[in-house]
Amino acid sequence: MKVPRVLIIAGSDSGGGAGIQADLKTVSALGAFGMTAITALTAQNTTGVYGVIELPPEFVAQQIEVCVTDIGCDAVKTGMLANAQIIEVVAEQVRKHNLTPLVVDPVMIAKSGAPLLRPDAIDALKTKLFPLATVITPNLHEAKALTGMEIRSLEEMREAAKRLHELGPKFVVVKGGHLEGTEESIDILYDGSEFTEFKAPRYQTKNTHGTGCIFASAIAAGLAAGLDIKAAVKQAKEFITAAIKEALPLGKGHGPANPMAWVVTRKA
Fold first, then answer.
1. What pLDDT digit, counting tens, does each position of 142-183 carry?
2. What strand order describes the sheet that includes 184-190?
3. For this structure, is 213 an active site residue?
4. 210, 234, 241, 255: which is the annotated catalytic residue?
5. Cα separation values, 258 from 113, 120, 195, 217, 249, Å
6. Residue boundaries of the structural domains of the chain
């Protein structure tokens, strides 16, 4: 039996709700084997990020190297990359080992508002990594930071997707979870010519920590298993919707979404 292999390049969340911890739970729930190249350590819980240690870029590269040359991988997902130097070595490894499909979650800001990407690294993300990406998955705040445009409607989401596609990724998913005034949560997939909408009920909860990480990792797990992009995004949308519906009321801040909801729901 061939097990889909997903390499996750991201930061660690000590609170377990986002980052590497959420990524591993997600790919495991979807039947994939997760490996990690950790870019940064965070002292983090549901109320905020209280400390960050960025790992040496050469050590990030070494983690990638030892995983792919021994175990191999069927998809790669990037999350928190912290700085331009790490982005550059990740891009080098992607090119060197032809790591594809590549899902890039342009993590910039934590749920609490703490910065997770240095401002001077945004350009490196756009120029070094986006052109290598199979799909990028910005939320509305990230899409605004990357395009400079206000995004307050579905039409503006489509325009942002067009602008982001021009930066080089094959596909763009603009997530509509933060869009105000809609009864549904609508994400938009753009392939350079056509838009596909993915709709789900909107659940009113503060417990949404880790949703971006979970969604992108679910896409990577789907692609690793051989799904095409539309099927992978559809599955990821269903996965994250279940995780939000069954979110965990832990901690004093934004509790974590629950990646294990997918497994429990299918066993019931």
1. 999 899 999 999 999 999 999 999 999 999 999 987 677 677
2. 48-54, 33-45, 5-13, 75-78, 102-104, 135-136, 171-174, 184-190, 195-201
3. yes
4. 210
5. 21, 33, 29, 13, 10
6. 5-267
CA-to-CA dists, residue 154 to 88, 159, 188, 196, angstroms: 33, 9, 8, 12
Cβ contacts of 135 within 8 Å, gap of 6 or more = 101, 102, 103, 104, 169, 170, 171, 172, 173, 219, 229, 233
Task: Report pLDDT for 116.
Answer: 73
Could you identify the residue written with the tokens 């990357």? Answer: 146
pLDDT given for residue 168 in this prediction: 97
pLDDT of residue 174: 96
Backbone φ and ψ for 164, nearest 5 degrees, come out as: -70, -35
Residue tagged active-site, from 77, 126, 175, 234: 175
Is residue 211 part of the annotated active site? The answer reads yes
Query: Which residue in the block uniquely carries the two structure tokens 């994400």?
Result: 187
Helices 57-70, 84-96: inter-axial angle, 10-degree rounding: 20
- Give me the catalytic one of 34, 212, 222, 255: 212
Element (H, E) at 64: helix 57-70
CATH match for 5-267 among 3.40.50.2300, 3.40.1190.20, 3.40.50.720, 3.40.50.300 = 3.40.1190.20
Out of 208, 234, 237, 241, pick the active-site residue: 208
Q: Which two tokens stand for residue 231?
A: 């099927």
In the chain (268 residues long), the average pLDDT of successive 10-residue segments reads 93 96 97 98 94 97 98 97 96 97 89 70 93 96 91 93 97 86 87 95 89 97 98 97 94 94 73
